[in-house]
Write a structure and sequence with these properties.
This protein is α/β, with parallel strands linked by helices. Helix content is about 50%, strand content about 15%.
Length: about 190
């Protein structure tokens, strides 16, 4: 009996390192799979954030857009705005399709230099898309999440130079957050 119990203890002691090694191997494989998946699918996971960042960099200057005799697509957005991120791939596709005929202007509401445009066009929710005809007249305002078909219809009205104004508001939008990065207080200067 003593030999059987002693043998069981020895066998259980000898299995522990094998189990620990197996757990380490399984854990390593899971972590490796996760890291490889992130690397392979990072473009899909972070594409909309990348698109939003590139919008501001590739944007036509608003002063040029309103004076070059082309219709203008003006979008107010923010990189933190989830609805803006959702719409980014559709807006990017529209930009690629129409950019020869239409100015695409993207203004980040967190950038203080666009404050006058934010006030001028009463931007309270984003994304907000304003469409202007060749003469700079506002023809459409689209606030909140819009499907590609609705935006395309509004762009087509621009090209046909229809003179009616439309405002389309969807309840899915982000409220502009007050940006306190630029505020000056007595303590901010030491």
């Amino acid at each position: 009996m003593f030999i059987v119990i002693n043998t069981l203890i020895v066998q259980s002691d000898s299995r522990e390192p094998i189990l620990k090694n197996n757990l380490k191997t399984i854990l390593f494989l899971i972590i490796s799979f996760f890291i490889i998946s992130l690397l392979l699918f990072k473009n899909l996971l972070f594409k909309s954030t990348y698109l939003l960042k590139s919008f501001g960099e590739l944007s036509v200057n608003p002063e040029i857009a309103f004076t070059n005799n082309k219709p203008t697509f003006l979008e107010f957005y923010a990189e933190w705005c989830e609805v803006c991120k959702e719409m980014a791939p559709e807006v990017s596709a529209l930009k690629d399709e129409y950019e020869k005929d239409i100015n695409f202007v993207f203004l980040n509401v967190d950038n203080q230099k666009w404050g006058n445009y934010i006030k001028k066009f009463a931007v309270n929710g984003i994304p907000q898309v304003n469409l202007f005809d060749r003469k700079g007249n506002l023809t459409s305002t689209l606030i909140g999440k819009q499907d590609e078909i609705k935006i395309r219809e509004s762009i087509n009205k621009l090209e046909k130079e229809e003179k009616t104004y439309e405002e389309i508001i969807n309840d899915e939008f982000s409220t502009i957050q007050e940006n306190k990065n630029y505020e000056v207080s007595p303590r901010s200067h030491g």
